[in-house]
């Protein structure tokens, strides 16, 4: 069963929403990007689907304010010559739901600059790596031996060994990689979060890496604006994709707490009044951008 994306009448595009930054070029290939409102098992959510054919869909991650420039300022400078499809807040923040005072959690590098060397091995088992060429890999840090392929030459580090972790950080820094950690909700066709976890309810946003029955690879961004537990949100997306004959390789959680930043752009560069988060980009303390190249 293929995805059939029908633009809901509720999915409107508008200008002048305030503090929303459009790509200066616009115009990505609409054959590679589809979006719409989906209903499954009585619940509704929004899905952005990226075809990875030809690897024209790229990812850029801004991990932190650097050199006196805020995330918004860094994004604005970078996006001037990019065909941006969407952006979203990424990694969790610590100690506070106020993004202006919250800190960084987990191993973090930004284009080779080491922000935080502290690896979290339990609750944040997703290690997300983006390369200078715009490719992204999601690893289960608890697998121990991890092989990284995005740079073109596979290299393996054993995260169960302190020295190898240190070597990975040095290699990532030298290779100008960007790295962060977050919740790994599903991996290798299996759910990784359990129903007896937190009962806290909130809006949810997930990044999924998967493939269809023919082996074609995709990214999905799934946005659930309703309040739901992490498990129930992740399970509904996992079941929905499986029901549509997609294999879930990895699913990670994107922050909707301290910084609920999210914006999708149409092919013409217009901003979506529905596919957006609760706070503006000026509130971002990190940011993941998908763009077309």
Task: Lay out the secondary structure.
Blueprint: E1 13-14, E2 33-40, E3 43-51, E4 57-62, H1 71-79, E5 83-88, E6 93-94, E7 103-104, E8 108-110, E9 113-116, E10 126-130, E11 136-140, E12 145-148, E13 155-158, H2 162-174, E14 178-182, E15 184-187, E16 190-191, E17 202-211, E18 217-228, H3 230-243, E19 247-254, E20 262-265, E21 271-276, E22 287-292
Antiparallel strand pairs: 1-21, 2-3, 3-18, 4-22, 5-20, 5-22, 6-7, 8-9, 10-11, 10-14, 12-13, 15-16, 15-19, 17-18, 17-19, 20-21
Q: Could you describe the 3D structure shown?
A:
This protein is mostly beta strands. The protein has one domain. It is built from three helices and 22 strands. The strands form six sheets. The protein has a seven-stranded antiparallel sheet with strand order 2-3-18-17-19-15-16, with helices on one face. A six-stranded antiparallel sheet has the order 1-21-20-5-22-4, with helices on one face. The protein has a three-stranded antiparallel sheet with strand order 11-10-14, with no helix packed on it. A hairpin with a 5-residue loop joins strand 10 (126-130) and strand 11 (136-140). The two termini are 29 Å apart.
Which strand order spans the largest sheet, edge to edge or round the barrel? 2-3-18-17-19-15-16
Q: Distance between termini?
A: 29 Å
> Structural class of the helices, strands and pairings?
mainly beta
Number of domains: 1
Helical content stands at: 10-25%
Shape: globular
SSE string, helices as H and strands as E:
EEEEHEEEEEEEEEHEEEEEHEEEE
Low-confidence stretches: 1-19
């Amino acid at each position: 069963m293929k995805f059939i994306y029908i633009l809901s009448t509720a999915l409107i595009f508008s200008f002048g929403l305030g503090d929303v930054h459009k790509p200066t070029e616009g115009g990505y290939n609409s054959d590679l990007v589809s979006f719409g409102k989906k209903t499954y098992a009585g619940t509704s959510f929004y899905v952005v689907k990226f075809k990875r054919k030809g690897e024209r869909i790229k990812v850029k991650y801004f991990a932190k304010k650097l050199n006196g420039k805020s995330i918004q300022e860094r994004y604005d400078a970078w996006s001037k010559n990019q065909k941006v499809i969407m952006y979203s807040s990424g990694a969790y923040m610590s100690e506070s739901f106020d993004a202006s005072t919250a800190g960084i959690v987990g191993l973090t590098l930004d284009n080779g600059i080491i922000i935080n060397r502290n690896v979290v091995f339990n609750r944040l088992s997703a290690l997300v790596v983006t390369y200078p060429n715009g490719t992204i890999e999601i690893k289960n840090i608890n697998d121990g031996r991890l092989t990284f392929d995005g740079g073109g030459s596979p290299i393996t580090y054993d995260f169960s060994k302190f020295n190898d972790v240190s070597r990975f950080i040095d290699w990532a820094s030298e290779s100008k990689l960007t790295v962060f950690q977050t919740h790994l909700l599903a991996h290798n066709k299996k759910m990784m979060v359990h129903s007896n976890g937190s009962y806290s309810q909130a809006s949810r946003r997930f990044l999924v890496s998967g493939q269809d029955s023919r082996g074609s690879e995709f990214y999905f961004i799934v946005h659930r604006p309703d309040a739901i537990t992490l498990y129930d949100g992740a399970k509904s997306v996992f079941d929905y994709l499986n029901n549509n004959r997609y294999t879930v390789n990895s699913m990670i959680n994107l922050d909707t707490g301290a910084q609920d930043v999210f914006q999708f752009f149409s092919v013409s560069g217009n901003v979506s009044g529905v596919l957006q988060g609760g706070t503006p980009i000026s509130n971002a303390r990190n940011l993941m951008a998908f763009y077309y190249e």
